[in-house]
Amino acid sequence: MTATSIELWGPLLTAFVVSAALTPFAIWIAPRIGAMDIPKDERRVHKKPMPRFGGIAIYIGTMVSLLIFAAKDSGMVAVMVGCTLIYILGLIDDLKDLKPLVKLSGQVVCAIVVYAMGIRIEVITNYFGPGNMVFGDVACCLITLFWLVAVTNAVNLIDGLDGLAAGISTISALCIGYVAYIHGQYVPTLAMMAIAGAALGFLPYNFHPAKIFMGDSGSQLLGFSIAAVSILGTVKSATIVVVIIPALVLGLPIFDTLMAIIRRVIRRQSIGTADKEHLHHRIMKAGFGQRRAVMLLYCISGIMGIVAVLYSRSLIIECLGLTAVAIMLVYVLLSDTGNRNISLKADKIKREKERDR
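and the corresponding structure tokens:
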């Protein structure tokens, strides 16, 4: 099977147009149905109520594009069912503020449905010997469910600054789609293009200063769809390492999620406890505004996307070099925060004194 230019770019353009056209409607209807994000605590960066109904534009944009370009594939039908369920779960959370355990249980149910419909991690490259590693039924189920739920929450947790989740999801989907394309797996390629297009169409309304948030319905949908589509095609071929490639591309949100879990375990808090110590929050504390913080994180995510592409071509030395660059960037951004904060406080005091005069 080959893909023409229209088949490759059609899903992205279709999803982009639909998502961009529907987002103003989402902004209009959000306050009328109570889908508003009210800044109730210091964890939130925004200071005024914001619509958080953008997930509907991303969902419809993705679904319309997949229906047109990829719905004939049985695996894609399973992905679309799972995306619909996770979107409904996120929408309920946006309207009712579900408890973390209830939300996690719902995510597991969505993952089980997708697994039951045939989206499974059954084969992965064996690095300890010839051939591939084939998982048994129990291991296959547990690994698949863990992967789907973990990536869903990784994207959900990084949705803390204007445009951050939408931009990183776009970068991730494009990179994974490109890796799928160069290895001859065109259905995942078309699906990733659709996901990227939907997120990209929403981004102009969500970039700082945002007019709307995607909400959990959007962030969970993006994470779940990327995780599910990345599994497609692995039964026939283990050339694309199903976990390694997406994990590299999504290295930033996955790292942030792991650090959040470790932080909360050390403090003996619930894993679902919200805080303001995520990577993007700490970069802002280091003196960067929202726009610069988000664009810096885009750059790091882009570097990790290139690492994934190089890894898929077995260019290990190049991968290690770029990964080291990404790690150094994160270190530079997070280090010496105390001195930056002192400088910021000094500037603030100086401005207040000048106003008093």
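(Above: one complete record from the training split.) The CA atoms of residues 310 and 316 lie 7 Å apart.
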